[in-house]
């Protein structure tokens, strides 16, 4: 819901600043035995001027049906936060695509602004990692994308609950019972399931992913022993103040227990939603919870740095990324 309003106000400002755009195509993955139908978009390099492309119920800056480059490119898959959508990090997606990556993002069924059916159910924490596996499966087999992807160079970006998703996909194992004490006095549906020990089972790991950028991950289900199977490089980000279920300093648990090589960046004076695209002034008044940053924090300047740092990390870790 808030993502759709955010994009409607931001996109006209973006179009004026783009000399050229990323290629952009909608993607629809049919339901199968592995899960519900998935929808989203794919960004990729394109030298043509940007226009507006209809992708489902919204429009985004890009070049519709721009031909895919005739070379193998690295793939980045993207997982959004709670009740977000595939478009929630389109600015980062565009930067990566313009630098030579194919970027694919989907909306997680049951956990979007238009579909809240499983947002407060434990099952979403198992289905989300499986959604990412199914997205990768699709990208590596479906025309026209499959022939343009180097399957040895796959990365993952996740924010908030998408950060939890990313950690699970690359090897972290949640411990559902760890929140039992916290749930004693909470009346949420998740806590009812926890108290009844209606745990959803194990999560899907995907060894095809070679590097991950993870921003403000929800870490409530992880212990210091959850991360032992993570073997790939990670660029980990945290806001100083947290928000939307991510507590200040809660990402420290991830940082201190990641056994793999990783970077850790704490963004001073930032709240959780600083990782979403900057809002134009009219939207700040309309959606202050999402758009208003503390003090003199400059979200636009931060995004320029964040996108550049994420790009540099993926280029370094996914060797020979095309520019």
Arrangement of strands in the largest sheet? 3-4-1-2-6-5-7-8-9-10
CA-atom Rg in angstroms: 19 Å
Total E-strand runs: 10
Unreliable runs: 1-5, 7-19
Tally of helical runs: 9
Task: Please give the alpha-carbon distance between the first and last residues.
Answer: 35 Å
> What is the molecular shape?
globular
**How many strands, which pairing sense, and closed or not: the largest β-sheet?**
10 strands, mixed
Give a quick rundown of the structure.
This protein has 323 residues and is α/β, with parallel strands linked by helices. It is built from nine helices and ten strands.
Give your account of this protein's structure.
With 323 residues, the protein is α/β, with parallel strands linked by helices. It has a single domain, classed as 3-Layer(aba) Sandwich (Rossmann fold). The protein is 29% helix and 21% strand. The chain has a ten-stranded mixed sheet, with helices on both faces. A hairpin with a 2-residue loop joins strand 3 and strand 4. Helix 2 packs across helix 9 and helix 3 crosses helix 4. It is globular and about 55 Å long. The protein starts with a helix and ends in a 6-residue tail after the last helix. The N terminus is likely disordered.
